[in-house]
Here is the input.
Amino acid sequence: AVVLAISILYFLFIAKPLLRKYETKIKRFDECYHFINTFIVSLSIKGTVSSAYESSLQVMPESFISSIENIEAFSQEDKLEHINKYFRFHVFSLFVDLINIYQEQGGNILEMSHYLLEEVRLIEEYISISKSITKKKMVEFTILWLLTLGIMVFMRFALTQFFNTITKQIFYPIGILSICLFCLLSIHIAISKMSKLQIRGWNDAEKIQ
Here is the structure.
């Protein structure tokens, strides 16, 4: 009962918030990635920032659209600055600076944005690789603990007399509690490492909008 209570409290108040921040970070950068790419491609075709902006909105999820409902009256520059606060990634700040330069000086937006798009692509690749490694580690971790559980179940039913002898020892409940707490610690370490995905500009300590 004690272990169950600790586990429930851990998953509700520690693991769940960490996982939610991780998922928000991944989702937010995916939105940022699509916004930047669509904006630049549309700008190269249509030639106006306002048209590129509208094209970018068409590929964004409803949650993003809802977050910018109050900026319709803003100038184009102010709209991008507001969205910059939503994404909070360094690459989007560079993107805003690039669009401002384009509006002031003109030029070939595809050539101007080459290094920016490459940076965005590398971050997206980094996230993809990190997710793949995380998934692999979680599978390995799960298999390890299932094997441990399997051994305990085997001892319970195949070595009944030996198991009954152990359960009468004073160290048995302490040992079971220690194993369960070690399992929770292992899970916490795995989740903590996974949630600390580093993307420049994003601060995990900030309140998620």
Summary: Residues 159 and 205 are 50 Å apart (CA to CA). Residues 2-46 form the longest helix (45 residues). The chain has a mean pLDDT of 86.
